[in-house]
Design goal:
Layout (H helix, E strand, L loop, with lengths): L4 H5 L9 H10 L1 E5 L4 E3 L8 E6 L1 E7 L5 E8 L3 E2 L1 H6 L6 E4 L3 E6 L1 H10 L1 H26 L3 H12 L1 E3 L2 E4 L5 H8 L3 H13 L3 E4 L2 E4 L2 H10 L1
Antiparallel strand pairs: 1-8, 2-7, 3-6, 3-8, 4-5, 4-7, 9-10, 10-12, 11-12
Helix pairs in contact: 4-5, 6-7, 6-9, 7-8
Length: 225
């Protein structure tokens, strides 16, 4: 199935491209489908494609020496990723796994390098994204440095939440196991912390999303740790 220019324009990285540029890019793309828990690529793998997530959700992870999963980040529909190997020609820095059925388009190495190095609007957006990633990674290091597991969980909730009429909302709440992986704690601790916050009325589960009614209270709780 050919990816339409309108679908591509929805990606922030490509939003400034002309219709002609989008049409050309559409003809260069390949597609793949992943089932839940299926691996897209492994850390250390030699691959240099630029990926665009059309539908679904993915996570980037690594594994400790004892096999424990360490979570880095999540990719939702509209995200692009894979640019690091395109830039430095090195192997993949993380393993990417589907957390639900996902539809992905990818641009081969040569075409991808032309896109990011020869298209000023794409280069600028990519630099801004890399800057954001560095800042988020710095925040994540601080998060993991907290000795209190509940504080790490609260910090992650605030990090992934977006403004909503009712406060802040996480549209697709990660599973308790995924939150545990991202915060270096246990699923039981995550369950206990979320249940406590729900009982206090600070947060509310609504289907697959989570609403934070009192974000300032969660922030104040962090200062008390």
């Amino acid at each position: 199935m050919l990816i339409s220019p309108d679908q591509l324009k929805a990606f922030d990285l490509l939003s400034a491209l002309s219709e002609a540029e989008l049409s050309k890019l559409s003809s260069q793309l390949h597609e793949t489908q992943l089932k839940r828990n299926q691996v897209l690529f492994q850390k250390g793998q030699d691959s240099s494609e630029l990926y665009f997530l059309l539908k679904g959700r993915l996570k980037a992870v690594d594994y400790s020496s004892n096999g424990r999963e360490i979570g880095f980040t999540f990719f939702d529909a509209g995200s692009h990723f894979g640019e690091l190997s395109l830039i430095d020609h090195k192997q993949r820095s993380a393993t990417v796994v589907a957390t639900e059925s996902s539809h992905i388009a990818y641009l081969p190495k040569n075409e991808a390098r032309k896109l990011i190095f020869e298209t000023p609007s794409v280069s600028e957006k990519l630099l801004l994204q890399l800057t954001r990633i560095i800042r988020e990674n710095n925040d994540h290091i601080v998060l993991l440095g907290s000795a209190n597991a509940s504080a790490r969980i609260n910090t992650m909730l605030l990090k992934y939440a977006r403004k909503d009429a009712n406060g802040l909302r996480i549209e697709k709440l990660p599973t308790q196991t995924e939150i545990a992986t991202m915060t270096n704690t246990t699923r039981e601790t995550v369950s206990r912390t979320l249940s406590h916050l729900i009982e206090l009325g600070y947060i509310e589960k609504n289907g697959k999303s989570l609403i934070i009614h009192e974000p300032q209270v969660l922030e104040e709780m962090l200062l008390e740790e």
